[in-house]
Amino acid sequence: MSISLRPLLNLGTRIGQALLPQDCLLCQAASGGGLLCAACARELPANASACPRCAAPGAGDTECGACLADPPHYDASCAAFVYAYPVDALIQALKYGGQLALAGLFARALQRRIGSAGGIDLIAPLPLHPQRLTERGFNQAAEIARALSRLCGIAMDAQLARRVRNTAPQTGLPWRERATNMRHAFACERNLAGMRIAVVDDVMTTGATLDEFARTLKQSGAARVENWVVARTAHNV
Known about the structure:
CATH topology: Rossmann fold
Distance between the termini: 6 Å
Strand content: 5-15%
Largest sheet: 4 strands, parallel
Number of strands: 6
Structural class: alpha/beta
CATH architecture: 3-Layer(aba) Sandwich
């Protein structure tokens, strides 16, 4: 999957120039102290009609054919947005530009999409491999999960499981090869018997990474695994 770097570079410039907290990151209009003005916030592509199992857009709130034919290990997914501009540029600004304040914006959007979040015992960010974490300096999923934990009043555990294989980037692989790439990428030594866990990540594409993580958690006894992601791609690309 690829996106134009021009919007991201332009966004990075605007972020650097936004010296006043009331400046919208996208258009620099007055935003009342928030990161985005009301007009730009309304333009973010909401994932309003999606498969309840994998959050694929356009499924009409019923389980999509792919999930019916080959059910994933996770039980449900919720995505606040469709992965399209300007959400894609905002995610890139957090992930590669270190704009950590965006984690709070994404967490609030997820909380609104999730609602009461009843029935979840624990929030867990999708872990990064230690080498990747050292290179980036932070785990964007953990930053979002930490803010979401505070908003929802649900405990967050960033050490619940580990990423034990530094796999090739999923974006560089055909979607049919992504499940194989993620095989045995995670490990969990905790007893999760009966627990209901929400896994937080920034972007969900084919769902292969989240599916393998859910498989790992269920092997440790988890009764239910949900994915809470900021954005879901419109197609498996």
